[in-house]
């Protein structure tokens, strides 16, 4: 749209001066940069908080940078949810899944996740629950939940629990983590995350 108006200028030097900032912005910000900025907006206010102009101001660019990567807001939301499912689902768990010792794997997983819970910090996961009727949101949340539950269940099986109990234990452990995340949204006086991580390990790591 902007380019069409630009090409009406007859003077090549004018055309160059106008095009140059757009080219610079497009090369400076990637599609992933926009997706991550959208995720921050989602954490703060759900899908409704994703709007091109405010994001452009936050990123310090014009809307031309956005349209170099996405056709519309819906494409950006889809890309943001895909990025979140990738980074917080199976791919984001690769390092933990590669730990051979299941006890160490569970200890490091619980410690990392619980210590990441910060009082009053925005959460993409919790914000998305308010938009759970959107099929894209349901799919992304399902992917993340399943990846985490599968890794926890596999870990408990390797620790000696029968398959059914391993699955149940995984759900209870994951529910506790999500509960801490939810509580942290309104509890500025929560115990230090390291203390909570120690408690989670003591409760959910079989002796």
TrEMBL record:
User: What Pfam families does UniProt report for this protein, alphabetically?
Assistant: TetR_N
Alphabetized SUPFAM superfamilies for the sequence = Homeodomain-like, Tetracyclin repressor-like, C-terminal domain
This protein's UniProt keywords: DNA-binding, Transcription, Transcription regulation
Kindly list the GO molecular function terms attached to this UniProt entry. DNA binding
Per the record, DNA-binding region residues lie at: 51-70
Gene3D superfamilies referenced in this protein's UniProt entry, alphabetically: Tetracycline Repressor, domain 2
Q: Can you say what this protein is called?
A: TetR family transcriptional regulator
- Where's the HTH tetR-type domain? 28-88
Whose protein is this, by species? Answer: Actinoallomurus iriomotensis
